[in-house]
Amino acid sequence: MIEIKNLVKKYKTRQEEITALNNINLKINEGEIFGIIGPSGAGKSTLIRTVNLLEKPSSGEILINGENITSLAPDLLRKRRQKIGMIFQHFNLLNSRTVRGNVSFPLEIAGVAKAEREKRVDRLIELVGLADRADHYPAQLSGGQKQRVGIARALANEPELLLSDEATSSLDPESTGSILELLARIRDEMKLTILLITHEMEVIKQVCDRVAVMEKGRIIEEGKVIDLFANPRQSLTRRFIKSIIDFNFPEELFKDHNGGELIRVSFLGKSTHQPLISSLVKTFELDANILYGKIDDIQGIPFGTLILELEGEYNQVLKGINYLKGKGLTVEVLSDDGALDQAVQV
Question: CATH assignment of 2-230?
Answer without folding.
Answer: 3.40.50.300
